[in-house]
Amino acid sequence: MARKDTAADAANPGRLKQIAQTYKMTRRADKKIGLVLAAVGIVTFGVFLAIGFLIGHPIYLGILGLLLAFLASAIVFGRRAERAAFGQMEGQPGAAAAVLDNVGRGWTTTPAVAMNRSQDVVHRAVGKAGIVLVAEGNPNRVKSLLAAEKKKMNRIVADVPVHDLIVGVGEGQVPLKKLRTTMLKLPRVLTGPQVTATNDRLKAMGDLMSNMPLPKGPMPKGMKLPKGGPKAR
């Protein structure tokens, strides 16, 4: 029992530190986050307290209002923190790969299956919607890179639908913050065994970047591929 309490005590400072770091990160991009959270909490608590006085149960409604005020503030904080994180990641090489890693269960992600020396890159995700190729980089250059990879997918797994998305804010592109939602809205046409079979075939085929170690998440700005390194097919 003592060991469990010790573990819980050790975990709590870690959680509090993580929340504090998230708040600081969010505040750098959202200067009004403190005022917004305070307003949400106060208004929620005030509404329930007022209802409590009207019906003659201010203590019960006050306690309920306090709990719901905390919950409402936490929800708002989570959403604004997510928005701030996406804002900081927007435009960084490898940002889409970080989002794909968190799409959800049922998806298998392979980052950087195709790349050129200008850091235009194509990532691949496989799920019940089929194969989704996600490109990030210069819209003009990345189209040819994406087309070549899509052609390769159609040749290797011709019976599986292949979708292609370009991350960006231009016309016909998908904003980084909407990438996960867009993928989850794709129609599911494959069964679990078909997804597994598709992954096995692609794994057997091998990836362009299989022999090149890449860091997780966004790649450092200014990173250059070594001379003689892999080129997009």
UniProtKB/TrEMBL annotation:
Ranges that cross the membrane: 33-53, 59-78
Output the superkingdom of the source species: Bacteria
What this protein is called in its record is DUF4191 domain-containing protein
Q: Which organism is it from?
A: Streptomyces caeruleatus
Compositionally biased intervals (Low complexity)? 219-233
Q: Zinc among the record's keywords?
A: no
A Pfam family per the record? DUF4191
Reply yes or no: does the keyword Endoplasmic reticulum apply: no
Q: Which UniProt keywords apply?
A: Membrane, Transmembrane, Transmembrane helix
Annotated region (Disordered) at: 210-233
The residues forming the signal peptide are none
